[in-house]
């Protein structure tokens, strides 16, 4: 067999081996997928959190599903159903959250909202504060878990002892005076054996507090997003109104100048001149007021975003799906972060009551210690002594002035308060969702009405202008029709912006903002 033949055989064997290895990997993946197991790892009154693991115990997916609320029918929508995803594997042990890319925006520049929002979130002190609180809650959870581990302490000190012991023998009294000095060092290990469930409950409370802090972080991000979007849209709205009033004022000024010339020529009455001037002065005042409102909107923008924007005519119009798809008829608002926090408050209150009840139970722990005595402390001059000790101790408080009873009753009252708070929160959100959704639909209908009104105003202005040129209509009528056209045009523009803002607020209320 020549060298080329040997090489070809080697390549063929390697190819077959690679093929069989790939087939084995595919079969192994298929087996793992078929052996995927999903279990409920967290359940409250409102939510069920599931973990799906493969045969090796690795988390491959996790989700939070909402339960139906009492008296509320959950209707599946054909789009935009909110799903809350959480990486359970990293939730407790890894506090690092993904950072948004650094985006530089100079004064006088503007970028699309979807580009600028990550910058706003990253630079928000409120978000950073909520993030630090979340990290602190994770450390609190680790602190609570530390009770499962043994406690090791070391002591070291120098002792001086004087022992004057009276004694009596054969009717004669004497005093034994013994002085000892030396160093004593000891190491003690204490391990909790049983505490009636106190530690387990404390860990559960810390875990719920950590999850609540994570939800609060998400809520803070939502608040910052909606606040940023609101001042952005208000800038455009106030600019539209200001520019419309400027146009009307300018038209009134031109109409006044034309009327004055007509009065001089005897073609118009002084009354017509005064009517036009009155309209001009009115819109001069309205323009000033709208300019003030625009400047206030600009100041609010700078306060929220941190840079001076250009004129609002350069602002890109936000996409209606900026925060995600909106369900056609949102009935499920369990994603609302305030409601989820109230749900955790309720669970934490129950666990606190449980822990207060555990205080009536005894605790059992064990202690192992080693003590080394030097110099005279060993029992004689210059002697040393070592001592080992092992204890198992049960502690049970039978009476402490009714403190445990009072603490338990207080916890029960707080539990009831949290239950009522949750119900009140759910009712309020339910009413707000219905109200916002009703208003949203009414605003869509009103937008169509405004668009039709704008078309009518344009046509009426055109016809009135033709009548004026033919000498059949006064200049005041032309001015009035032009004013109506400008006002109807800006009304359509601002109604579209109001509809967007309402849409974003519904997203926040039902908890479907895509973060």
Strand tally: 7
Apparent shape: elongated
- The percentage helix is 55-70%
Q: Unreliable stretches, pLDDT < 50, 5 or more residues?
A: 1-11, 30-34, 69-98
Calculate Rg over CA atoms: 39 Å
Helical region count? 9
Would you write up a description of this structure?
The chain is of the alpha+beta class and 515 residues long. The protein contains nine helices and seven strands; from the N terminus they run H-E-E-E-H-H-H-E-E-H-H-H-E-E-H-H. The strands form two sheets. It has a four-stranded antiparallel sheet with strand order 4-5-6-7, with no helix packed on it. A three-stranded antiparallel sheet has the order 1-2-3, with no helix packed on it. Strand 4 (151-169) and strand 5 (172-194) form a beta hairpin. Residues 1-11, 30-34 and 69-98 have low confidence and may be disordered.
């Amino acid at each position: 067999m020549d060298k080329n033949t040997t090489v070809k055989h080697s390549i063929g064997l390697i190819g077959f081996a690679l093929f069989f290895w790939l087939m084995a990997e595919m079969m192994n993946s298929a087996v793992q997928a078929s052996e995927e197991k999903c279990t409920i790892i967290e359940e409250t009154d409102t939510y069920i959190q599931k973990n799906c693991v493969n045969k090796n115990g690795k988390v491959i997916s996790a989700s939070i599903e909402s339960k139906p609320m009492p008296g509320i029918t959950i209707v599946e929508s054909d789009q935009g159903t909110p799903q809350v995803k959480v990486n359970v594997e990293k939730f407790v042990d890894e506090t690092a959250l993904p950072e948004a890319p650094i985006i530089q925006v100079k004064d006088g520049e503007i970028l699309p909202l979807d580009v600028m929002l990550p910058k706003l979130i990253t630079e928000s002190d409120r978000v950073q504060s909520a993030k630090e609180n979340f990290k602190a809650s994770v450390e609190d959870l680790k602190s609570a878990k530390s009770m499962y581990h043994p406690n090791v302490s070391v002591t070291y000190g120098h002792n001086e002892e004087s022992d004057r012991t009276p004694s009596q023998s054969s009717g004669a009294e004497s005093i034994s005076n013994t002085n000892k000095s030396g160093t004593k060092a000891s190491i003690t290990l204490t391990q909790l054996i049983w505490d009636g469930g106190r530690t387990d409950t404390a860990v559960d409370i810390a875990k719920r507090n950590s999850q609540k802090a994570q939800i609060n972080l998400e809520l803070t991000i939502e608040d910052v997003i909606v606040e940023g979007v609101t001042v952005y849209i208000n800038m455009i709205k106030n600019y539209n109104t200001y520019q419309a009033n400027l146009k009307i004022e300018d038209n009134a000024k031109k109409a006044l100048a034309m009327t004055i010339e007509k009065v001089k020529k005897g073609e118009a009455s002084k009354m017509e001149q005064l009517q036009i001037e009155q309209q001009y002065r009115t819109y001069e005042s309205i323009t000033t007021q709208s300019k003030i409102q625009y400047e206030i909107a600009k100041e609010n923008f700078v306060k929220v975003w941190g840079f001076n924007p250009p004129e609002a005519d350069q602002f890109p119009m936000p996409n209606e799906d900026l925060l995600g798809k909106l369900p056609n008829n949102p009935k499920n608002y369990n994603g609302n972060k305030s409601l989820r926090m109230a749900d955790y408050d309720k669970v934490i209150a129950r666990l606190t009551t449980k822990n207060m009840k555990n205080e009536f139970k005894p605790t059992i722990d064990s202690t192992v210690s080693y003590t080394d005595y030097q110099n005279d402390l060993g029992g004689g001059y210059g002697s040393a002594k070592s001592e080992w000790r092992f204890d198992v101790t049960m502690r049970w408080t039978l009476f402490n002035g009714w403190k445990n009873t009072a603490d338990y009753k207080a916890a029960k009252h707080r539990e009831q308060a949290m239950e009522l708070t949750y119900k009140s929160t759910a009712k309020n959100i339910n009413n707000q969702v219905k109200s916002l959704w009703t208003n949203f639909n009414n605003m869509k209908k009103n937008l169509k009405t405004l668009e039709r009104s704008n078309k009518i105003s344009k046509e009426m202005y055109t016809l009135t202008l033709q009548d004026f040129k033919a000498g059949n209509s006064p200049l005041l009528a032309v001015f009035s029709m032009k004013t109506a056209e400008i006002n109807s045009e800006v009304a359509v523009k601002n109604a579209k912006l109001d509809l967007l803002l309402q849409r974003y607020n519904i997203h926040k209320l039902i908890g479907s903002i895509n973060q």
